[in-house]
Every structure is written in structure tokens, then in C-alpha cells.
Amino acid sequence: MTPLPPFPLPLPTQPPDGYGREECALSILSTTTAFEVSIRERDRFLGRMRCVICGIAGSTLLQHCHIIGQAEPRTVSFIPPETKEGPQHEPRNGLLMCNFHHAPFDKFHFFIRFVPDTQRFIFVNYSGSDELQRYHGKAIGLDNQDRHAPFPSLFVIHEIRVRGFHPFQPISSEVPDGNPFQDWIVADGVFDDISRSQRQHLSQFPHVATNSGPGVHTLELNANIINEILAATHAMPSWKACVVEGTSWDGTANENIEKYISSIGVDKSA
Q1: How confident is the model at residue 191 (pLDDT cuts 50, 70, 90)?
Q2: Residue 63 and residue 95: Cα distance in Å, rounded?
Q3: Between the chain's N and C termini, which has fewer beta carbons within 10 Å?
């Protein structure tokens, strides 16, 4: 191995040969760090990081989970083109999960569906796993108003893969009416039962008890459902924030205003 040359004094403005750091490596490091930090801040409840599925807390028990692992063809409308670093570095393509749920998510045992009517992300045990059934049909700990909330459209891609791995399962799944929250969200005091609002995080969701009633409805997937999810995705603060972050604002004030209106969809008359 060729020894590195010593640093001359006074120090040069550029490092000598052999001491430089690849710009790409630094970029990947910084974007990966931003991905992890954003998810840890978002998936924090009452001051503690938790698995968004079961609520288990503790940094040693939690893992960063990607919804889709890399950019894929035909993702137009599913992820903003302004996403600079690709889905693997986009916090809106990630979740905080424990290993018990990260592994079956990656192995396509269950999927997460955003329901526009209730504005909630619900857990669907499509494989019929006994270990996962307790979470089926209940909303997980994700705030759709957070600027880093996952894109619901990405869960559609994951859901289609889950369905492909279980071709003999019924196309429609029965889930509880109202999409009640996971038991831990209520039991661990994430919500204030008196004020019917969350003390910290998920503030836009009304309190719904986990035993809200015996009513069920079928959860289907068709073109109309996908269009509704895409429309809801484009209207979410996280989509708009991603577009703003990835857009160049080097033009004049008027040009930037027009660009913002055309990109975000703000009504000019507002």
C-alpha cells in the first residue's frame, strides 16, 4: 500500500492526493442520515420512538423500513418527480418498525392501505397470518398531516406485490367499520380521552375506541380506489412539501409564484 503524503504547513485549501473524499459517498451518507433522522422524528410518540404497527419502543428494537427499495418504472403520479435522491433516501418512503413487523412487511405478508374517507393508514393481514391478525383492519401510528408522512400511493405498489404473493386469497378483505386505531395507540395514552385529541402527534385524528362495534366492510382494490388514493396523495402536505423541496426557485418572484401555483395546485383566486 502506497503511504499517504504528509500534510504540508500551512494547510492547503485542498487536501493532498489520497486524502480526498468522494463527493458521491458524502452525498449518500448525508441523504441516508436525513432519511433516518426524519423518520425517527416523525414516528415518535409522547417523546419515544415506536414501531408504527405495535407501538414497541426502544431504539435497539426498531428498524428503518422502506416501502419500495428503489426507483421503479412507471411511478409517475406515485412519487413526485422532484424527489432528488431517489426513493431509498426519501423519508416519505420509510417507516419505523420493529423486527417482528419489518420482516413480514418485506416478505409481503401484509400491506398498509390509506383510506381517504377516514384519512388513516390501516394494517391489512392479507396472508392470514395468526401472529398478525390482532393488528388487522386497525389504523397504525402515522400522521397524514406530517410533512414527511409516507406517500399513500407507494403503499399501493407494495399492496399489489403482497397480493401477487398470495394469489389464492380473496380479492376483498373484511375490515372493521371506521378503521379503529391499534390498541396501543389508545392503551398507552397516546390520546387524551377527555379532550378527544392526541396529546402529542396524530393531532388531526379523532379518538376512536378499538372496540367501536361489530360492523365490517370489504376493502377492495380497483381503478377507482387507486385513483382516489392518488388524488389523496397529491393533496397531502407531504407531497406538496416534497415538490417544494425538489423545485428550483431561481426565477423572479412572479416566476416562482407561477411555478408554485402550477406545481402545488394553489387556486390563483385564493
Answers
A1: low
A2: 8
A3: N
List the one residue out of 202, 240, 183 whose CA is nearest residue 43. Answer: 202
Q: For 135-201, give the DSSP string.
A: GTT-B-S--TTSTTPPPHHHHHHHHHHHHHH-TTS-SSEEEETT-PBPHHHHHTT-EETTTTEESSS
Residue corresponding to grid cell 423541496? 245
pTM: 0.74
Mean pLDDT on 247-267:
62
| CA atoms within 13 A of residue 101's CA, in its CB half-sphere | 30
Domain boundaries, the chain: 42-244
Q: For residue 28, is pLDDT > 50?
A: no
Q: Do residues 96 and 50 make contact, with C-beta atoms less than 8 angstroms apart?
A: yes
Place of cell 380506489: 225
CA distance 26 to 46: 33
For the cut 80, the answer to whether the pLDDT of residue 36 exceeds it is yes
d(Cα 84, Cα 14) in Å, to the nearest integer? 28
Q: Contact, 45 vs 126, CB < 8 A?
A: no
Distances (CA, A) of 207 to 177, 186, 188, 258: 14, 8, 13, 40
